[in-house]
Amino acid sequence: MIRLMEVNLHHHLLLLLLLLTLSLFSQGHAHYHLGKEKVTHLHFYYHETIRGDNPSAVVVAHPKDTIVNASNPGPFGTVYVVDDLLTEGPEPDSKVVGQAQGLYVSASRQRTLIVLVIDYGFTSGEFNGSSLSVLSRNPVTESERELAVVGGRGKFRMARGFANLKTYSLNATAGVVIVEYHVTVFHYDQ
Ligand SMILES: *[C@@H]1O[C@H](CO)[C@@H](O)[C@H](O)[C@H]1NC(C)=O
Ligand SMILES: *[C@@H]1O[C@H](CO)[C@@H](O)[C@H](O)[C@H]1NC(C)=O
Ligand SMILES: *[C@@H]1O[C@H](CO)[C@@H](O)[C@H](O)[C@H]1NC(C)=O
Predict the structure, then answer these.
(1) Which residues form the signal peptide (predicted)?
(2) How confident is the model over 147-168, as a mean pLDDT?
(3) Does the C-beta of 124 come closer than 6 Å to ligand 2?
(4) What is the DSSP string of 20-39?
(5) I want to staple 136 with a disulfide (CB 3.0 to 4.6 A). Which of 78, 102, 147, 169 is the partner?
(6) Who contacts 79 (Cβ-Cβ below 8 Å, separation ≥6)?
């Protein structure tokens, strides 16, 4: 008799857990509908300074026994954290339209190539408060590169797309690079 009650109690607990789990899952799924899909093109410039008094990219780690300096800024395994400005035009004092925040790692043993994990957050205009998430390799010495846009926040929720990059200018002495971005984003009406 006692054994039987124990078994029943177990069954009840299991059933309760199962129901709880199911209701948690269904809450997440059922009530969100994507709007109509649309395409947006964005154009901006990315400014990065890796040296000087106020760098926008800093080395946080590199392999033991490697030296990171002006002539060797990214040996394999180097990790940079960035908080870079995005602007409308290429000039350093051009209107700021966003911030690129995240990190990249030097991820090739053969060549200069980084992998980015960066949130491009917009701070003006129609997409103020929205962002794009990039997770992609970037062979920085090639004149044209493509990055994968894998998601976003706000008006770019559930976005996918790609960014075409060209180095606009590079001053190795000052450690300043300006990159032109053309981004094509597929996202949804909200
Ligand atoms: C960077 O470090 C290497 C290795 O120590 C050295 O040969 C080179 O001169 C350094 N470059 C600069 C710009 O400090
Ligand atoms: C962007 O949005 C923030 C937060 O809502 C607001 O404080 C700011 O004034 C907006 N900026 C522009 C340029 O619209
Ligand atoms: C690169 O930066 C250095 C140091 O700020 C500056 O003296 C030099 O004029 C710059 N070079 C170019 C081509 O702008």
Answers:
(1) 1-30
(2) 98
(3) yes
(4) HHHHHHHHHHHT-----EEE
(5) 147
(6) 59, 60, 61, 62, 103, 104, 105, 106
Could you give the CA distance from residue 96 to residue 87 in angstroms, rounded to a whole number? 4
Inter-residue contact 111 to 77 (CB < 8 Å): no
118: burial class by Cβ within 10 Å (0-12, 13-18, 19+)? buried
User: What token pair was written down for 116?
Assistant: 């980015």
| 16-29 tens-digit pLDDT | 666 666 555 555 55
For residue 128, the ligand 2 atom closest to its alpha carbon is 1
Residue with tokens 């899909």: 37
**Count of alpha carbons within 13 Å of 16, Cβ hemisphere only?**
6
Minimum-distance ligand to the CA of 67?
A: 1
List residues near ligand 1 (CB under 6 A).
Answer: 67, 69-72
* Among 141, 165, 163, CA closest to 150: 163
| Amino acid 31: pLDDT | 75
Atom of ligand 1 lying closest to residue 67 CA: 2
